[in-house]
Design goal:
Blueprint lengths: L9 E6 L5 H13 L4 E6 L8 H9 L14 H6 L2 E5 L12 E4 L10 H21 L7
Parallel strand pairs: 1-2, 1-3, 3-4
């Protein structure tokens, strides 16, 4: 891979509140891809904070997502992404012709305890690992 960020595969993870699923996906992608790819996340209706159960579930696997915060997506970020992964934002998700889209059907962890969030976290990890392989990125163990 090259050191030029503009030439790296770029993925945008989107969900409604950008507080759970998309933040976990961003955490896994950043952790597993290292400097081989770029990832962003956003929400259609960003929440006030990242879901504490999502933070705790990710901490259990050694990934710290406490430095992130819910944020809206912008047209520029959507345009810049090579792959847009949607997770439950429905009709409010942006659509740009010619972009690669994936819709990941995942339960919403909002209001759930850590016991309910763990299987969602594990599903997100498996999906991120598949996406990395499809992008030709070797996951860092």
């Amino acid at each position: 891979m090259t050191d030029d960020p503009a030439s790296l595969p770029t993925v945008l993870f989107l969900c409604t509140h950008n507080a759970g699923r998309s933040q976990m996906a961003l955490g896994y992608f950043s952790h597993l891809a290292g400097d081989q790819g770029v990832a962003w996340s956003g929400g259609s209706e960003p929440g006030n904070e990242i879901n504490p159960a999502a933070v705790a579930a990710m901490a259990e696997v050694g990934i710290d997502i406490t430095g992130e915060f819910p944020k809206p997506w912008t047209d520029e970020i959507v345009q810049a992404a090579d792959v847009v992964v949607t997770m439950g934002c429905g009709d409010s998700c942006p659509f740009v012709p010619g972009k690669r889209y994936e819709n990941w059907e995942l339960p919403d962890p909002a209001g759930q305890g850590i016991e309910a969030v763990r299987p969602i976290r594990d599903d997100v990890e498996a999906r991120v690992r598949r996406l990395l392989a499809e992008l030709g990125i070797t996951a860092i163990l």
